[in-house]
Amino acid sequence: MPDRAAILGEAARLRGLFEAAGAQPVETAILQPAEALLDLYGEDIRARAYVTSDALRGEQMLRPDFTVPVVQMHMQNGSEPARYTYSGEVFRRQEEDPARANEYIQVGYEIFERDAPDAADSEVFSMVFNILRPLGLRAATGDMGILMAAVEGLRTTDRRKAALRRHIWRPRRFRALIDRFSGRAPVPEARAALLAADDPMAGAAPLVGLRGTDEISCRIKALREDAETAPIARAEVDLLDAILAVRETSDNALERLRDIAVDMAAIRPAVTRLARRLEAMEARGIDSAKLDFEASYGRVQMEYYDGFVFGFHAENRPDLPPVATGGRYDALTRQLGAGHQSGAVGGVIRPGLVLALGGVT
Questions:
Q1: Rounded to whole angstroms, how far apart are CA atoms 266 and 319?
Q2: C-alpha angle 112/90/313, rounded to 5°?
Q3: Is the dihedral of CA 111, 114, 119, 122 positive or negative?
Q4: What is the percentage of the chain residues whose pLDDT exceeds 90?
Q5: Residue 293, φ and ψ in degrees, nearest 5
Q6: Rounded to whole angstroms, how far apart are CA atoms 44 and 53?
């Protein structure tokens, strides 16, 4: 890996490119309040955050990325449209792979614009695409909004849909829920025995922990109601599987998703947004016939992405993480906006990886 001075120099160069495109440079504190942020990051990042405590400020964490604090800053003080850029260290604990860095530099570009999401998506992507073009990386794209729309359109209970939405970013758990809700997998034996008991609390050991008997009874009632719910239709599960299986060039993926949308009307608006985004990218010189699209892409990244997602990968270096990643996170602005919301999309580049792959000029 290049030395720190070289990485900082490359970070300054990249940030300068974003500033030249009209982005306002911003800074965020390295030490962030932990309580709210831990709920907003994906499971992987939460598990790898450096968390400490302060007698006056409570739990604190070393900044695991810039997006959340930048959104907080914008929603408190920003006007629109707005473009921001930043650079600095992020920190992620590594417990399984000692070769992966636990501290590295990110350079980012974020757009807050509610009226032209397709143009903003294509602007962020094309900026990163053109900066990294000399490295010959594979650009992968996806759209979490299509999968979310498919889940929302299932003919099942709100409780089941909420569970599926919650686990979209955990593919194995998501698949287990689909199999159970559709009747393809049996209810676990322990749960079946619990539901069959006349009084599941009879003879129970003394309560340990924070849950009271009312909460436990409420949960058992919900499980019994779920057990009586009709399974999700096989045809709907097949359509969901067809969406998850889409992995081809963006132009072909669009046509395949349009075909699926004939039978799953819930995804039509999201597919239309994909079509508009591809048109905006074509206008910026991105050939959709050469751009990969994977319907499942982004499902193990940040949980705040709820639309367009992308990443740039060095195929000849599978040992390296993505050189750049990004996506749309409109829902995050609602969560942090205190009653207000915006449209937001951004991307980050790791300058250390850019230099490790030979650098760009």
A1: 38
A2: 75
A3: positive
A4: 58
A5: -130, 130
A6: 21
Q: Determine how many CB atoms are found less than 10 A away from the CB of residue 226.
A: 18
pLDDT tens-digit map of 52-99: 888 888 888 888 889 889 998 998 887 889 999 999 998 887 766 677
| pTM recorded for the entire structure | 0.86
Q: Residue 199, class by beta-carbon neighbours within 10 Å (0-12 exposed, 13-18 middle, 19+ buried)?
A: exposed
- Contact (CB, 8 A) for 66 and 15: no
Q: Are 11 and 354 in contact, with CB atoms under 8 Å apart?
A: no
Q: Which two tokens stand for residue 163?
A: 């569970």
The per-residue DSSP string of 265-286 comes to GGGHHHHHHHHHHHHHHHHTT-
Q: At what angle do helices 171-181 and 158-166 cross, to 10 degrees?
A: 160
- Find how far residue 44's CA is from the centre of its chain: 11
pLDDT(332) > 80 = yes
The Cα–Cα gap between 27 and 84 comes to: 10
Distances (CA, A) of 87 to 91, 109, 123, 140: 13, 9, 19, 23
Residue 10 carries which side chain, given as an amino acid letter? E
Strand order in the sheet with 138-143: 24-25, 82-91, 103-112, 344-349, 324-328, 308-313, 138-143, 292-294, 247-249
Taking the C-alpha atoms of residue 208 and residue 300, their distance in angstroms, rounded to an integer, is: 33
Q: Please enumerate, as own/partner, the contacts of 123-126 that have beta carbons within 8 Å and a separation of 24 or more.
A: 123/284, 124/326, 124/345, 124/346, 124/347, 125/281, 125/286, 125/308, 125/310, 125/326, 125/347, 126/281, 126/284, 126/285, 126/286
Specify which residues 103 forms β-bridges with: 91
262, two tokens: 């004939």
Report the pLDDT value the prediction gives residue 227, as an integer from 0 to 100: 67
